[in-house]
Amino acid sequence: MMHKKLFIPGPTEVRKDILDAQAQPMIGHRMKAFTELYTGLISKLQELLQTQSFVTVPTASGTALMEAAIRNCVNKDVLCCTYGAFSERWFKIAKACDRAADAIALDWGKVVKPEMIEEKLKAKKYEAVAVVQNETSTGTRAPIEEIADVMKKYPDVLLLVDTVSSLMGDKIEIDNLGIDVCVTSSQKCFALPPGLAVGIISEKALKKAETVSGKGHYLNFLDIKDYFDKKGQTPTTPAISLMWAMDKQLDKMKAEGMENRYKRHLEMAKYVQEWAKKHFSLFPEPGYESVTVTCISNTKGISVADLNTELGKRGFAISNGYGKIKEQTFRIAHMGDLTLDEIKEVTKNIDEILKL
Ligand SMILES: *Cc1c(COP(=O)(O)O)cnc(C)c1O
Questions:
Q1: CB of residue 165 inside a 6 A radius of ligand 1
Q2: Where do the CATH 3.90.1150.10 domains begin and end in the chain?
Q3: Model confidence over 159-188: pLDDT tens digits?
Q4: If DSSP codes are grouped into helix, strand and coil, which group holds residue 118?
Q5: CA-to-CA distance for 356 and 345, rounded, in angstroms?
Q6: Ligand 1 centroid vs 132 CA: distance in angstroms?
Q7: Where in the sequence of the chain do the CATH 3.40.640.10 domains occur?
């Protein structure tokens, strides 16, 4: 079967050398070889993300770390800001963990503003605020820098941020912003196969975890940190093969340079946004467009399914809308290792198929 190059917001296209890096003879996760692999991985992540915080790579998808952030950092009151499918997930998770979640619920396509959060924080004492920085379902980017500024006035309130579809593509200064738990997964901007999550956990979050009960077992931050400090390993058996791929990918990111990587993502975003505005319109609230995925309003009423079938014959896949805006929108992801030339190729093929 012909491979369709992925312009979908996860899993993203994985380059052949990265796929190949997984195929090595297995090692034991209590062997020195694993400690070297894993501790190397963690220092490379800290270096590329310019963070001093504790970094962990659990074998799980990103959602597991969202749940862990709630379970480790919130006893009771958390404020969830919702404006799309993944930000609504924060709220659902908090409820499912028996936490007393409140929501700032906005229409899909909008993003939360710092003053909305401040109003809530003035009115009630919350333990944490949960935000999605890049809402993949609507292609929006929340103003995390401004939100972080407001949060600095409330040092007892933790900031939990889902950067699943943006970290490593969109510049997020985790330490400067004071993000307490930053969550991502391997299959988006890392351009790796799915199966690993990455969590960046502040000192403040670890301190808070000491006071929280019902942290669970698998993703108990304190146990994970303790195991890492003592052994340089993970408490349970990790996806070692995926970690080889991540290790190689981190070396490639360093070679590209993170600033160049962020610039490449911005260039791709600008290009797709211009293309979309010319032929359709953008779904997000103006000024808050994502750097890694463009959500396009289907103003021409095209059949996205038919378009994708035709694109598939040419070796490309884009994405339909998500959830309740499935028919109303479609999405082109420009994240991971994709280049501007590849993006131009996909829009050129769409132009040809739709006779735009
Ligand atoms: C993909 C995605 C998730 C879910 O990640 P999984 O790795 O599938 O659990 C969460 N939040 C956002 C913003 C996403 O794009």
A1: yes
A2: 5-12+257-354
A3: 999 999 999 999 999 999 999 999 999 999
A4: helix
A5: 14
A6: 10
A7: 18-254
Quote the pTM value.
Answer: 0.98
What whole-number distance in Å separates Cα of residue 343 and Cα of residue 196? 26
Report which ligand 1 atom has the smallest distance to the Cα of 194.
7
Residue of 164, 242, 291 to mutate, ligand 1, most atoms within 8 A of C-beta: 164
pLDDT value at residue 142: 98
- 161: CB partners within 8 A, 6+ apart: 130, 131, 132, 133, 144, 172, 179, 181, 182, 183
25 CA distance to ligand 1 centroid (A)? 30
pLDDT digits (tens, 9 = 90+) for 265-309: 999 999 999 999 999 999 999 999 999 999 999 999 999 999 999
Please spell the DSSP secondary structure of 282-341, one letter per residue: E-SPTT-B-SSEEEEE-TT---HHHHHHHHHHTTEE-EE--GGGTTTEEEEE--TT--HH
Question: In terms of Cα–Cα distance, which of 73, 37, 307, 118 is closest to 212?
Answer: 73
Closest CA to 249 of 11, 16, 6, 26: 16
CATH architecture entry for 5-12+257-354: Alpha-Beta Complex (3.90)
For 25-81, write each residue's pLDDT tens digit.
Answer: 999 999 999 999 999 999 999 999 999 999 999 999 999 999 999 999 999 999 999
Residue for token pair 């993203």: 12
pLDDT tens-digit readout, 193-208: 999 999 999 999 999 9
Q: How far apart are CA 93 and CA 62, in angstroms?
A: 12
Q: Is the CB of 109 under 6 A from ligand 1?
A: no
| Cβ 61 under 6 angstroms from ligand 1 | yes
Q: What is the CATH number of domain 18-254?
A: 3.40.640.10
Q: 164 in ligand 1 pocket by Cβ < 6 Å?
A: yes
